[in-house]
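new request in #modeling-help
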Amino acid sequence: MSLPEPSSSGRFGEFGGRYVPETLVPACQELEAAFREAWADQSFRDELDGLLADYAGRPSPITECHRLSAELGVRVLLKREDLNHTGSHKINNVLGQALLAKRMGKTRLVAETGAGQHGVASATAAALMGMECKVFMGEVDMERQALNVFRMRLLGAEVVPAMSGSRTLKDAVNEAMRDWVATVENTHYCLGSVMGPHPYPWMVREFHTVIGKESREQCAKLLDNEIPDVVTACVGGGSNAIGIFSGFADTTAELVGVEPAGGAAVGRGVPGVVHGMKSYLMQDEFGQVQEAHSISAGLDYPGVGPEHSHLSSIGRARYEQVTDDEVIAAFQLLSRTEGIIPALEPAHALAWISRDRAKLAGKTVLLNMSGRGDKDVGQMMEILG
Amino acid sequence: MTPTLAEEGLTIPDAPSEPGEFERSLRATRESGRKLLVAYVTGGLHDEWPDVVRAVADAGADAIEIGIPFSDPVMDGPIIQEASELALRDGASPVTVLDTLRTIDAGVPLAVMTYYNLAFHMGHERFASLMYEAGVRAAILPDLPLEEVGPWATAADPAGIETVMLAAPTAPDERLPRVVARSRGFVYAVGLLGVTGERDALAESSLVIARRLKAITDKPVLVGVGVSNGQQAAEVSQVADGCVIGSALMRRVVEGEGPAGAGAFIAEVRAALDES
């Protein structure tokens, strides 16, 4: 793998760690040991690969966007994670964690969700493997993403509103952690991004490296053994971004994460500690965590995975910000030019390409199309009238 | 090569070999034959909070934990979440709470209970010295477990702030002694698997963890999380040296019972402990 393992304390440079209540320390240690052992076990890998192929539909293709490229003057390739079962990249991580949880003898999954994609994926994996599943979702997000709430319930999961604080993803994480503190003996916390306490940022990355690995091989064929000039993805917690970056970290490709302007932890945050990790975090002058504001429930998060903070601080990746209006325009642009309705999250990455198209002129850009837009159509119908 | 803990600046210093002011006070009270009662009060909740602190001290609390409200209190249940949110809305910050604390002469030792980011953000040395200047002698940071406590303890120990470690029911036998060794002030025994909040009955796990801790340390062992009334306090203190009461007290404050109601409740718990 081209991205290194974190240190023994779970750090990527100065970021990461394991800042959890004492009750959860043994559980995190057990999880780390179980993951390390499973990840080195070919039979576990084979079982997961089988599920990814036969259940999730991998490999996902790369689509070359001819009409979009002509319009922007930038050659745009999309890694089609939107075509996976459940409609996003989230399934890669969830199948891995659910298999691991079963292997550890856990019978119950608890998860947080923002836009609902991770919640739907968790509920799906729980249904597939016959496990109980409880998903915490901010009350605000339950309204924005009512369809996904219905999906999760249809899949047999219990969906519980997070009513505290900003009532979005940040608070759903708090509630999931509180649940886990109380249920740790039979429950696995199926965390949905490359964040949280060690080993989550590393483990979730590893489950998503399949995106980068496939992309690298597919690009080699498509680009005659060249690599793309730029690899880009949206960043909330940053799981889809780290997945695709992992395939190109050892190349000359420029890695660009795109954050929402209202939730730009790397762009506007300073180092802080919340949700078990040290990372860039939007906070006030005293260290209180600020509420994020984004059109996209999936990116409405004031923190970011610690490895992104590290990649930014060492200059291996850079992080751009786009506004909600730019995202709305990109959402329409891709729909109109390619017949692909993107989720609002990856529309952030496209919004950046579109805004910076003059600088990117003539370059080849690989964009991780992390999810499809079905879940956002209702919200966009209201916005666009 | 993966760096060592020392290279990462995470070396955990040994705890001070002698008890500090806070622990000495609790030990003296214990030696007088009295069970220890620590009350938790959310700092900055309504203008009356200094009176709540004085009232619970007068009612027989042996020490008081002042909660500095944090935006994301993951170890807390609904009552302390609400108290924290209300206090933050009233403009509470580490600076306002500690500034006010200087003016409160409670007459009992004070600890601060808050989340690590507030200390990290302000800077360990500055946070520790501000606490000390405000009369605080101990700190409880529930999201700072043993493995991460090094940088904080390195600043807090010489500043005269005793760092109280939490000991949870999930800790294996080999872990508990290490947690206990690093703890000063007292050892905070987490009574159950779960977050702070009232429970109908005392969890069996609180007696188990208290027993496990009493078997390996002579530092004061206090059970917190899920100790909800005088009867439960007395029950758990049959094994432990005492207990911490938080949510049951703060519910009364949130519901508007004021300093008088808070004092009356603590007096009730005190009486139950003294009779047991």
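bot summary: Chain B has a mean pLDDT of 97.
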